[in-house]
Design a protein that fits this description.
The chain has 15 helices and 27 strands. It is an alpha+beta fold. It starts with 19 loop residues before the first helix and ends in a 7-residue tail after the last helix.
């Protein structure tokens, strides 16, 4: 906060104690200054806004790319809907093609979504959809350097340099985009296709009282008629209730006379908890937001519940989102906020501040779970529980020796990677975590997690995904020293005692952005006791 950077030309002096109040004052001053300026020269502000919008229209008419196409042929349109609706909320116009059209050598079906750049917010659309490129000698940055929405969501979005896209007949969306879900055919069993939609976990929780099975990775493709039933496809008894939810959630399903005679397992919902420290809650808050949006039931637990012990009696799965101060590593998770001699810091319900304690209470938020808490998590795993760690929290299990053979190293000082998007290679495509993923190489956001390593003989069983670590594998944003990531595991599935630890060096629930990765976490939750033994 006190270092001078290009984005912080006048930092506060080192002697200043900076607080949330200062942040709020800064924002309030900025808003009031903008309002004062607008009130003093309203015609100039209005004219400038008009000129900016007109220049954007002109740019989209003269400069490539001229637009973007979201092909309607994609198997999962719910991720397309996520991107399109973010654009629509920004005032960006998107139209639905009224007929089939061809651009260059590519033919797109009717119903494909078309974003033409000759519009007032065309430049904003380009910023959100294009790849971010940085010179190798770039300075440090304030925040993330990669946010390309198509890569983050795993939605196909074609950038179009053909000016003919501006003439494609479309019907502009009047509001938000909601893809139509459907159940085709009739029969006693409904098979909901796993095409990568995160809405599948919502469906399972909405229909938690029903019995669901999942088709496991088959030796050869499973088909019904001309429809493939990919691994992870959910099987449930047909009913109007099931059909209604499939349609609402934009999913695709087929009705069958009977369940296919293939290997499958029951999809049992776990007793799920999410662990939060008291001192580092920002990234964790986004995981809570994602779970709430997808209607995943969980208990939010703190050091008090961890220390209480007997975790396995209450939970099947505990998720530890990316968090922890003290420079990262297990130390921040274990000890959290330093205690002060003779002082306690309570966070409890208070009539004067009714929001306090609404989602968790503590008589003293300092001290962390401590080593006794680590011991309780170790007992939880060894007695059959599943511990899932994300991003920076993934130093925890290796550094506390809950996992015995995993090394969690840190990058050198020369390495610099503020949130780029990079390639990751799926090396265990049969694992349930990868239900819904058709490609072996997928884009993921670099999360600053540990550089993992396991012994070679163990890697064949426990490494599920790894980083290629080549210059060409940096897809968007800035990463200096990419070779340090070469061959490093991105996801590990480590058996420990009767349970297991699933270690994500990535963070598949980052700021409600990388929804293409979230399905990996959703699959880990849904299939928690059906991982390969």
């Amino acid at each position: 906060m006190t270092a001078r950077e290009w984005y912080r030309p006048l930092p506060p002096p080192r002697t200043l104690t900076w607080s949330m109040r200062n942040n709020t004052n800064y924002m309030e001053t900025g808003v009031l200054s903008a309002l004062e300026l607008t009130a003093s020269i309203p015609k100039t502000v209005l004219e400038n806004f008009y000129l900016k919008s007109r220049n954007s229209v002109d740019s989209g008419s003269k400069d490539a790319p001229y637009g973007y196409v979201f092909p309607a042929s994609q198997k999962d349109l719910t991720r397309v809907a996520f991107v399109v609706n973010v654009l629509r909320k920004q005032g960006i116009e998107v139209g639905e093609a009224t007929g089939e059209f061809k651009l260059g050598a590519v033919t797109y079906p009717a119903g494909s979504l078309v974003l033409k750049r000759n519009q007032p917010y065309g430049r904003l659309a380009k910023i959100l959809l294009e790849k971010q490129n940085f010179p190798s000698d770039a300075q440090t940055t304030y925040d993330d350097t990669g946010w390309t929405m198509g890569l983050m969501s795993h939605a196909r979005i074609d950038e179009i340099d053909d000016k003919a896209v501006l003439d494609v007949p479309v019907q502009n969306l009047a509001g938000m985009y909601q893809p139509a879900g459907a159940v085709t055919g009739s029969g006693a069993v409904t098979a909901i296709l796993h095409n990568g939609s995160n809405n599948l976990i919502t469906l399972r929780y909405r229909l938690k009282d029903l019995q669901f099975d999942a088709i496991e990775k088959p030796v050869k493709p499973v088909k019904t008629g001309d429809v493939d039933l990919p691994a992870g496809t959910m099987l449930v008894a047909s009913s109007p209730r099931v059909t209604a939810q499939v349609e609402k959630l934009g999913l695709q399903a087929v009705a069958l006379a009977a369940a296919p005679d293939v290997k499958k397992h029951a999809i049992d919902l776990p007793r799920l908890a999410m662990f939060s420290t008291w001192g580092s809650t920002q990234d964790l808050g986004w995981v809570r937001y994602a779970f709430d949006k997808f209607e995943i039931d969980y208990d939010l637990i703190y050091k008090e519940r961890i220390r209480q012990g007997n975790l396995r009696a209450a939970y099947d799965v505990i998720v530890i989102p990316s968090q922890g101060g003290r420079g990262g590593g297990a130390k921040g998770l274990i000890f959290d906020i330093d205690p002060r001699p003779g002082k306690t810091y309570a966070y409890t319900r208070d009539p004067a501040f009714p929001a306090l304690g609404a989602y968790g209470e503590s008589q003293d938020i300092t001290g962390g779970m401590g080593l006794p808490g680590v011991a309780e998590l170790d007992k939880f795993v060894n007695s059959g529980g599943v511990l899932i760690t994300l991003g920076a929290a993934s130093y925890f299990a290796p550094e506390t020796f809950i996992t015995h053979t995993v090394d969690a190293a840190r990058a050198t000082a020369a390495f610099y990677a503020p949130g780029p998007i990079v390639e990751a290679e799926i090396v265990a495509p049969e694992h349930p975590i990868f239900y819904g993923y058709q490609e072996r190489v997928v884009p993921v956001r670099w999360a600053g997690g540990p550089l993992l390593r396991v012994p070679a003989e163990e890697a064949r069983k426990s490494v599920l995904m790894r980083f290629p670590g080549n210059d060409s594998s940096v897809l968007s944003g800035l990463m200096r020293g990419v070779a340090e990531t070469r061959g490093r595991p991105a996801i590990l599935d480590e058996p420990v005692g009767q349970g297991r630890v699933v270690i994500f060096s990535t963070n598949p629930a980052y700021r409600w952005q990388n929804l293409g990765e979230f399905n990996m976490l959703a699959n880990a939750i849904l299939h928690f006791h059906d991982f390969p033994k």
